[in-house]
TrEMBL record:
Keywords: 4Fe-4S, DNA damage, DNA repair, DNA-binding, Glycosidase, Hydrolase, Iron, Iron-sulfur, Metal-binding. Residues 355-365 have a biased composition (Basic and acidic residues). This is Adenine DNA glycosylase. Belongs to the Nth/MutY family. Pfam families: HHH, HhH-GPD, NUDIX_4. Its EC number is 3.2.2.31. Residues 46-197 form the HhH-GPD domain. Residues 353-376 are annotated as: Disordered. GO terms for molecular function: 4 iron, 4 sulfur cluster binding; 8-oxo-7,8-dihydroguanine DNA N-glycosylase activity; adenine/guanine mispair binding; metal ion binding; oxidized purine DNA binding; purine-specific mismatch base pair DNA N-glycosylase activity. The keyword tRNA-binding does not apply. It catalyses: Hydrolyzes free adenine bases from 7,8-dihydro-8-oxoguanine:adenine mismatched double-stranded DNA, leaving an apurinic site. The keyword Iron applies. InterPro entries: A/G_AdeGlyc_MutY, DNA_glycosylase, HhH-GPD_domain, HhH_base_excis_C, HhH_motif, MIG/MutY, MutY_C, NUDIX_hydrolase-like_dom_sf.
Length: 481
């Protein structure tokens, strides 16, 4: 009489039938053509939150550009981000390069093959560590992600919340027990493949599933209800105003871009200038701001950053969703302007004579502008500078809800109490040839931040890495031009 329990038989059946199915139906993917641990590592990072079909061309381009860990480690970050452009979640690219440097420094350029060493690398968590170790080195360790937890939840009819860490730990233990001796590489890939092709999130293809016979979720009619997962908090909507600033004179045919701060969301990526439509914690704040008020706010906010523009017209809308926030962008076409003309625009609707006088006094004393609190016009400067400080993260906080006399008077009082100043900082001589501008304004709240600004043509776009949202807007702009 056999001592094998029904649960043990279900586990053996699962592993046996899954591998037989995988051997016959596995997809031919570029990173599966060898067990190169570097290639497998890159592919696993790229596949996080991204479809296989999308990843393939990026993967091929990436390993062609950076064929070894050493080359990746020594590459300029800008090149790495540019090669990643369009994939999103850009911290992944930075973490990959940081980890590559660790691999070169600590392991002589060889991706480590132990759980302790590989888990110590930047950006590598339990899943990625398990995937690289098992697929590249055939180490019998689990690689559990959302796909795998969905498959196991259904097959064993587990109703634990997969969004909770204890459930992930439980799933890792279970997955480890299922790995057949000597076939960790194929088994973990087979498990991922089943989740991607058959045991899909919605409308699973149970009739073609190789392990349907013992699937408790299907037998109990719960395949559509499993896995149990707490719904994530929906992203917070944020309405923003974005400027496509067209250059004039020597900058004709170009637009102004800026580099984001060194830390935080989309760190060190390039973007088009934009500001929050309305400072408020209320959902949808700024959504109903009139076009006139929106352009006035945009112009004044950029003025406080040291950028002088003349608002033109509303051009388009765009939106982008991050994991925690959703940007709704109203895009305005603007033109490069002088500080004098912008100062006059920012006073439209203001009735205060002393405000006009104060602005006039500021324009009359250019020699002391750097120390007086006046705004510096960087619109037509090319600054040969050489000691730029790395940007610090900061926020621009201007309480403006519309272009009314009352709101502008309120701003006048704030400015009088705590004037914002622009300190022009040095930039390297290499950047001198690229028309780089650095401004370090202080906000009304005294928070310091810095942006590098550059005028670029359509051809120059190849030199800079843009998040998808800004890339598409720029492409559309130059297409229409």
């Amino acid at each position: 009489m056999s001592n094998i329990t029904a649960e043990q038989e279900a586990k053996r059946y699962f592993s046996r039938e899954l591998l037989a199915w995988y051997d016959e139906h596995k997809r031919d993917l570029p990173w599966r053509r060898s067990r190169n641990p570097y290639h497998i590592w890159i592919s696993e990072i790229m596949l996080q939150q991204t479809r296989v079909d999308t990843v393939i061309p990026y993967f091929l381009r990436f390993v062609e550009k950076f064929p070894t860990v050493e080359i990746l480690a020594n590459a300029p970050e800008e090149e790495v981000l540019k090669c990643w452009e369009g994939l999103g979640y850009y911290s992944r690219a930075r973490n990959i390069q940081s980890a590559a440097k660790q691999v070169v420094e600590r392991h002589g350029g060889i991706v480590p093959d132990t759980p302790e060493e590989i888990s110590a690398l930047k950006g590598i968590g339990p899943y990625t560590a398990g995937a690289v170790l098992s697929i590249a080195y055939n180490v019998p360790v689990p690689a559990v992600d959302g796909n795998v937890m969905r498959v196991l939840s259904r097959y064993f009819c587990l109703e634990d919340d997969i969004a909770k860490n204890p459930t992930r730990i439980k799933m890792e233990k279970l997955a480890g027990e299922l790995i057949p001796a000597g076939r960790a590489s194929d088994f973990n890939q087979a498990l991922m493949e089943l989740g991607a092709l058959i045991c899909t999130p919605k409308s699973p293809h149970c009739l073609t599933c190789p392990v349907m016979k013992h699937c408790k979720g299907r037998i109990n009619g719960m395949e559509e209800q499993l896995p149990v997962k707490t719904k994530a908090k929906p992203p917070r909507p944020e309405h923003r105003l974005l400027a496509v600033i067209e250059g004039q004179g020597e900058h004709a045919g170009k637009v102004l871009i800026r580099q984001r701060p060194a830390t935080g969301l989309l760190a060190r990526m390039w973007e088009l200038p934009h500001v929050i439509a309305e400072e408020s914690k209320k959902a949808g704040a700024g959504a109903n701001l009139s076009e006139e008020a929106a352009m006035q706010r945009l112009s004044m906010a950029l003025h406080n950053e040291g950028v002088e523009v003349r608002p033109g017209e509303a051009w388009m809308t765009a939106e982008h969703t991050f994991s925690h926030i959703q940007w709704y962008m109203r895009v305005f076409l603007c033109t490069e302007a002088s500080a004098a003309s912008t100062a006059e625009q920012n006073l439209v609707g203001a009735q205060s004579a002393d405000e006009l006088a104060r602005r006039s006094d500021e324009k009359a004393e250019p020699a002391s502008a750097l120390h007086s609190g006046a705004k510096m016009d960087i619109s037509d400067r090319q600054l040969p500078l050489n000691q730029v400080q790395e940007p610090e993260q900061g926020t621009l906080d201007i309480k403006l809800s519309g272009a009314t006399a009352e709101s502008l008077e309120h701003i006048r009082q704030q400015l009088a109490a705590s004037a914002a100043t622009d300190i022009v900082e040095p930039i390297s001589q290499v950047a001198e040839q690229q028309e780089v501008y650095a401004a370090v304004p202080s906000t009304l709240l005294g928070e310091a931040f810095a942006y590098d600004y550059r005028w670029i043509s359509q051809e120059d776009m190849e030199k800079y890495a843009f998040p998808n949202l800004f890339l598409k807007i720029l492409q559309q702009y130059f297409k229409e031009k």
